[in-house]
Amino acid sequence: MLDMIDLQEAWNLPPVRVTWKPDSGTIHRTVLLRTGQVNYALRAYRYSNEQRWKIEGEHAIIAHVQQHGLPAIAPLPLPNGGTILNHEGAFYALFPFAPGQQIPRHKLNIDNAIAMGKMLGQLHQALRDYHPQYARTISFDVDRETSVAKIDQIEAAILSQPEGLNALDKQSLQRLAQRRDRLMASQPADVSILSTLNHQVTHGDYQESNLFFEGNSVSAIIDWDQSLFAPRAWEIIRVFHYIFKFQAEGCSAFLNAYRTIIPLPLVDLEKTATIYAWIREHDLWLYEELYLHKNQRVRSFVAPGRFIPLAERWHALKSQLV
Questions:
Q1: N vs C: which end of the chain shows fewer Cβ within 10 Å?
Q2: Residue 102, helix vs strand vs coil
């Protein structure tokens, strides 16, 4: 990690008095800094020299969004005019602190949902013609037999625990069995239907941990390294899933606000939700982390109750959207 003395010299900063870690994690390591009354965020990238282009792409999309008057937080320039510091084979960028405050997911209200929807509409407008050179694409790399085999492996790991099974373990076994039944009974989705929708660059990780709010407005958008070339509806379905849990009130407020900026037909959401649900039903990351990699930090993410396929949750919501 970059020494604070080297950091100060690289960006001509006054002495760093306090450092701390952000509450929410990122793919890359982030350290928050205070020099006097000024705060910064230092990002340490987990990229090799051959992957430097990914950082360049992230900084380029930030600059593009800023040029359209939107509150993307840009990295601070070094004395040579660049924004990427290469120090002992590692890459760093320094960002000013974002204005406003972050709001935990469980405290988001309808006004926040409306602000988020409007901002995403403006963001998609700004990125409509942006070149997808640096953006990721959607991965359709799912296979039913592979996923079922992985469920078997996770179940075996749960049952072999020497300390026996607790309530969470029993619930996990139940949900895994329900997911296996769902996968075995489902017909694979026709992923080619997404090709009928217009694709463009999107933020890729639009959620409350990457947004700051002032009053009833989004005041800053951060973490652009997951930009995705996809239908606009993909980002919206992801918001429905991650932030609003397919609950009608939040999803409707968000979508209606988005549509005040840019139209989006319900049929686009329907096509996208079908593929999104199929891919997510193969996603066993949470159980792999908990039971195969022994990552106890993810325990709180295991949802209570039975496994409800995302397709069912979408269809329950769809009838309440217009």
A1: C
A2: coil
Q: How far is CA 179 from the centre of its chain?
A: 23
- Per-residue confidence band for 2, with pLDDT thresholds at 50, 70 and 90: confident
Contact, 272 vs 231, CB < 8 A?
A: yes
Helix or strand (DSSP H, E) at 95: strand 90-96
User: In this structure, are residues 83 and 57 in contact, taking their beta carbons and an 8 Å threshold?
Assistant: no
Structure tokens at 284: 């066993």
What digits encode the pLDDT tens for the residues 56-89? 999 999 999 999 999 999 999 999 999 999 999 9
Give me 76's structure tokens: 């601070």
Domain count of the chain?
2
Closest CA to 216 of 293, 103, 138: 103
pTM of the complete model:
0.93
Q: Which residue has the tokens 């989705």?
A: 189
Domain that holds residue 236: 105-140+188-318
